[in-house]
Amino acid sequence: MELIKGFVTTLVTTLIFITAIELVGPDNSMKKYLKFVMGLILVAVLLNPIVKFFSQGETVLTSIIDQYDKEIEEGINKDEAAIATQELREDSFKDNFNRNCINKLSREFKDMTFESDLDCTVDFDNMTCQINELRIGISDKGVKKVKEVKIGEEEKEIKEEDSTQKEVKDFLSDELEISKDKIVVYYL
């Protein structure tokens, strides 16, 4: 990068110098000789990086690549990479667990659709998983009846588990060996 930056700086400086010389130069027959000399200087400036590359290009190129590798290694913090990997593994575990729950429930209760959301802490070093809560959303397949809307009246809903919610909770508790109080079943 520094080589390119140096080349561009030299080229721009040379072009400004050539333009200034042409402006100051006399308007007689000497002007064509002046342009010829300035053209030779410009060609020399353009060929300089190519000649330098052929004469010592391999060592310069390898030193630049080594310097670039060192900057990259220093730029990446290993702790951040480990944390990102840990989070990715944990997210993958949760996604797989949720998909597994949905598949098990879909096989057992064929007339319903499910949604699963797991809240857990995973320790991959000790291979343990502490499940805080498993939320399962259920809905019947097919067309649903629209609930009657009453404007101006407040309706208090008492949330009690019906038989379907209880069946789903019992099935998951037995199948996944999770305590029933950590499983929340709700309607979508």
Automatic annotation (TrEMBL):
Keywords: Membrane, Transmembrane, Transmembrane helix. This is Stage III sporulation protein AF (Spore_III_AF). The chain crosses the membrane at residues 6-24, 36-55. Pfam families: Spore_III_AF. The lineage of its organism: Bacteria, Bacillati, Bacillota, Clostridia, Eubacteriales.
